[in-house]
Amino acid sequence: MGKIKTAFLGLILLSLASVKTSAQTTPIPKLIEKNGRHALLVDGKPFLILGGQAHNSSGWPGMLPQVWQSAEAMHLNTLEIPLYWEQIEPQPGKFDFSVLDTLLAQSRQHHVRLVLLWFGTWKNGSNHYMPEWMKRDAAKYPNITGKTGKEIDSPSPHAKATLDADIKAFAAVMRYLKQADPQHTVIMVQVENEPGSWDTVRDYSAKAQKFFEANVPAELLKSDLLKSLNIQPGVKGSWQNVFGERADEYFQAWSIARFIDQVAAAGKAEYPLPLYVNVALRDPLTNPPATHYESGGATDNVIPIWKVAAPHIDLLAPDIYLDGSERVQKVIDLYTRPDNALFVPEVGFTTENARYFYDVLAHGGIGFSPFGIDANGEAHTNEQMAERLAPYAQEYAMATPMMPELAQWAFDGKIKAVVEHEDHAAQAIKLGAWDAIITFGTGASNNLKNNPLPVGKAIIVTLSENKFLVIGSHCHLTFKPTGGNAGKPWQYLKVEEGSYINGEFKPLRILNGDETDWGGPRIGSQTMVLQISLVAR
Ligand code: DGJ
Questions:
Q1: Whole-angstrom Cα distance, residue 465 to residue 431?
Q2: What CA–CA distance (Å, rounded) separates 80 from 322?
Q3: What SS3 state is found at 249?
Q4: Are 349 and 369 in contact (CB under 8 A)?
Q5: Could you give the CA distance from residue 527 to residue 417 in angstroms, rounded to a whole number?
Q6: Distance from CA of residue 477 to its chain's centroid?
């Protein structure tokens, strides 16, 4: 063999080896837990999903240019986008992954990770994304039956043929991903979309009724679980007997969660990415009956049932479309549990909802994502689009260079936050030797103007006893020494505005004079990152 040929062959072997090595050395994304707190590891390191979800019908190649335009303008690092069963499996057992290939290739070009949303048996409680060949065969792939015998627009969790078909399709997706995505562009997969049923609390078909009248499965009779559902341990028998007035809903939750767990297990056996289920919420404050929301989904009252029924689902994720900070903060509390990492895969795309990103960080959440980022086929000008995206874009622009630090601080429980409530009242954060008092509004503190919408927010990370990192917008900040220094005079040693880059704070300027007098640092409508040191005198 000539010298040139040998060198050429060597080069090929070298590049093949390096492809193999990089594929082998990139660890698969996974969720970890420490002291009841969670992190999503991507490439082996804590990762924060600065997310955005595309509209339901935007996961088609022809729609992607608009999606990428928004993704870029928003500075997101992760796109949530549907994968449609009707597209993947147009004929029984014949799979077409061309759209998935396009998604993978374009995400890599845009340096964005993906969370895939498996629009399978359930989409918002209905079967609308089943392939045509399933929709045409209602006997084989049935919907559920309401209390009065009427068919409900919601697939039956008791249909073996549907379960088998979903298992086969989802397993095929995960098998394909395993070989098509060695670099782990896809970091997590949502199994189904807002499963449950509207218009009936459960399935009343003859088949379902038989299960309902049978004994409650032993897994649900363990005393800890019963206690978490406010049921006296020791009770046995039918669903009605054990769960009384909540029996219909709990039966529906169990049935759907068991179905989805089997789909998830089949997918995980192919390729064990983190999997989650998103939830159409109920009012978290008033304990309404299940006739008032989508029944059977992982609403806050049935989280314990879902945890037992669906062990292959890593987390249950609230879709937040509720009004009012009290409700939203309650939901964030309810889905932050030692057995559940907090992830908000959908939040209504309003200006004021961007502030809950800070609450998610303070709860050690792994990600946040407003719903409906793209123009959805409408002709928006770039300016209109930029204006719509701005409340989220400015937070993600701030967070991008310091994502590794934010993810680690969230995991370590080091982030504290306040978000403005509807009454605009000031709030305090306890920081050991200091209390921070945050007032919401813009302008000087002696001429403070209320924010027209409750958009104010602040995060504080304690760097050392007297040194803090503060991030926020639409607020004022002041401090008070506590403990041994309580009541003493104090002053700012230094207030620096800057940004975190490569793990270090890089100051842009020192804020002083008008920028810190008159009631402490003011943060206007643009998100600021400040490093503040204080001294008690
Ligand atoms: C919640 C669902 O999960 C999304 O797919 C979408 O339908 C929104 N609701 C509504 O805009």
A1: 8
A2: 21
A3: helix
A4: no
A5: 14
A6: 29
Q: Is the CB of 193 under 6 A from ligand 1?
A: yes
Alpha helices in 58-152 (DSSP H): 64-74, 85-88, 98-109, 132-135
Angular region, 170: left φ>0, alpha ψ -120 to 50, beta rest: alpha
Ligand 1 centre and the CA of 129: distance in Å? Answer: 13
Q: Would you state the pLDDT for residue 519?
A: 81
Closest of 361, 314, 320 to residue 339, by C-alpha: 314
- Measured CA angle at 279 (ends 151, 282), to 5 deg: 80
- Dist. CA 119–CA 294, nearest whole Å: 17
**pTM across the whole model:** 0.94
Residue owning the nearest CA to atom 10 of ligand 1: 371
Give the distance (Å) from ligand 1 centre to CA of residue 109. 27
Pairing of β 315-320 and β 275-280: parallel
User: CA 519, 524, 530, 533: dihedral to nearest 10 degrees?
Assistant: 0
- Give Cα 236 distance to the centre of its chain: 37
| CA atoms of 143 and 155, how far apart (whole Å) | 4
Q: How far apart are CA 251 and CA 497, in angstroms?
A: 55
Are 122 and 197 in contact, with CB atoms under 8 Å apart?
A: no
Indicate if ligand 1 lies below 6 Å from the C-beta of 248.
no
SS3 377: coil
* Residue 203 identity: D
Name residue 115's beta-bridge partners.
80, 188
Q: How far is CA 434 from CA 33, 193, 409, 462, 464, in A?
A: 30, 45, 19, 10, 11
Q: 507 has which bridge partners?
A: 498
Decide whether any atom of ligand 1 lies within 6 Å of the 124 Cβ.
yes
Tell me which residues of the chain have a pLDDT lower than 50.
1-24
210 three-state secondary structure: helix
Chain centre distance of CA 202: 27
Write the burial class of residue 236 (CB in 10 Å: 0-12 exposed, 13-18 middle, 19+ buried): exposed
So what's the pLDDT on residue 445? 64
Nearest-angstrom CA–CA distance, 210 and 129: 28
531 C-alpha to ligand 1 centroid (Å):
39
Q: Which two tokens stand for residue 49?
A: 């999903």
> Cβ(56) to ligand 1 under 6 A?
yes
- What pLDDT score does 520 carry? 87
Q: How far apart are the first and last CA of the chain?
A: 81
